[in-house]
Write a structure and sequence with these properties.
This protein is α/β, with parallel strands linked by helices. It contains ten helices and ten strands. β4, α5 and β5 form a beta-alpha-beta unit. α1 runs parallel beside α2 and α4 crosses α5. The longest helix has 36 residues. Bound molecules: S-adenosylmethionine.
Length: 314
């Protein structure tokens, strides 16, 4: 037996830890034997060893019976814990339509299906890259990154648009930046063409989205083709896309920022209704999912633009 140490709790005249009280009769001895076994304290009394203190009685049968009983309890508890763990794992999937724990492969397949369905029926979102050749290298890289973000958030949307990159010429600076910066770009599920949207769709279906339009966008019409100017202008070229659209007598619309948001006081006194193309796309997909412009603008307009949602009238 290990060296005994006085337990602080034992006090004067108390027992020593590790020291075993001598049992008075055989029954007590058996239960003590069992207790020690359950506590996994090896006292060297394993059956068929005789019980200690010189007793002639063997405790093996009772001990074995109790040991088996205890093992059954332990196994049952283990099984219950395992079942509980499996139930916990399965529960969120049942509760939330199997979304959170779906494997990447399943999520990818679902997104792919939604995009292919969008090709058949959803409204078109064109990015007009015909103006991109005049951008600086830095602006071109930023536009390529925005195209990646736009594609990503559209792909994740419950009701995605079908994306078309128009005026997208193989070998052009924006083409090269998209291929260089956007992993898997050649596999993106969208149309790319050097042609103009004007050659692809009837004029009456086209709505050019431009921050300088007089018309606030009220709704998203699945039969329309929405066009975004593929532009990053670090020094804002006012009305650039508006002039482009007016030159072709197209319908134009802006996001209804002025209708649902108000200017927020900020240190720079900066307020801009001009968003990046991926932010406009965020607004459109959120609107399609919620049919709420406040929700859509909250999701898309970053605080840095100097606008906050208008308080609802009481
Ligand atoms: C960075 S903006 C380019 C701004 C540029 N000065 C112009 O005249 O369009 C990129 C494109 O996003 C779209 N866009 C940005 N803000 C918008 C808004 N508030 N409403 C509608 N479209 C917007 C337009 O299609 C715009 O051409």
């Amino acid at each position: 037996m290990a060296m005994a140490q006085r337990s602080p709790a034992a006090g004067a005249g108390g027992q020593w830890e590790g020291e075993v009280a001598q049992p008075e009769d055989g029954g007590d001895r058996e239960s003590l034997c069992e207790t020690l076994r359950l506590l996994q304290i090896d006292v060297g009394w394993d059956s068929p060893q005789p019980c200690p203190a010189g007793s002639e009685r063997w405790c093996s049968r009772n001990v074995l019976r109790k040991q088996r009983h205890w093992e059954r309890i332990v196994m049952a508890k283990k099984k219950k814990r395992k079942q509980e763990k499996e139930r916990r794992k399965a529960k969120p999937a049942e509760d939330k339509g199997a979304t959170p724990h779906q494997s990447k492969r399943v999520l990818k397949a679902t997104a792919r299906e939604r995009l292919l369905a969008a090709k058949e029926a959803a409204p078109r979102l064109c990015i007009d890259l015909s103006m991109s050749s005049r951008m600086t290298k830095k602006e071109t890289s930023r536009l390529a990154a925005q195209i990646r973000r736009l594609y990503g958030s559209n792909k994740r949307a419950g009701k995605p648009f079908w994306i078309c990159l128009t005026g997208f010429v193989i070998g052009s600076p924006i083409y090269q930046e998209c291929v260089r910066m956007n992993d898997g770009f050649s596999g993106y599920l969208m149309d790319t063409t050097p042609e103009s949207y004007l050659d692809l769709f009837p004029v009456e279906r086209i709505v050019y989205l431009t921050p300088d339009s007089e018309n606030a966008l009220r709704d998203v019409d699945p039969h329309k083709v929405y066009v975004l100017g593929g532009l990053v202008d670090e020094t804002i070229q006012k009305e650039r896309s508006l002039q482009q659209a007016q030159g072709h007598a197209l319908q134009t619309a802006r996001l209804p920022i002025a209708e649902y948001m108000v200017r927020n006081a900020n240190a720079r006194n900066y307020h801009s209704e001009t968003l990046a193309i991926n932010q406009v796309c965020d607004a459109l997909v959120t609107y399609c999912a919620t049919r709420s412009w406040p929700e859509a603008l909250k999701a898309a307009v970053p605080p840095g633009k100097g606008y906050v949602l208008r308080e609802p009238a009481t």
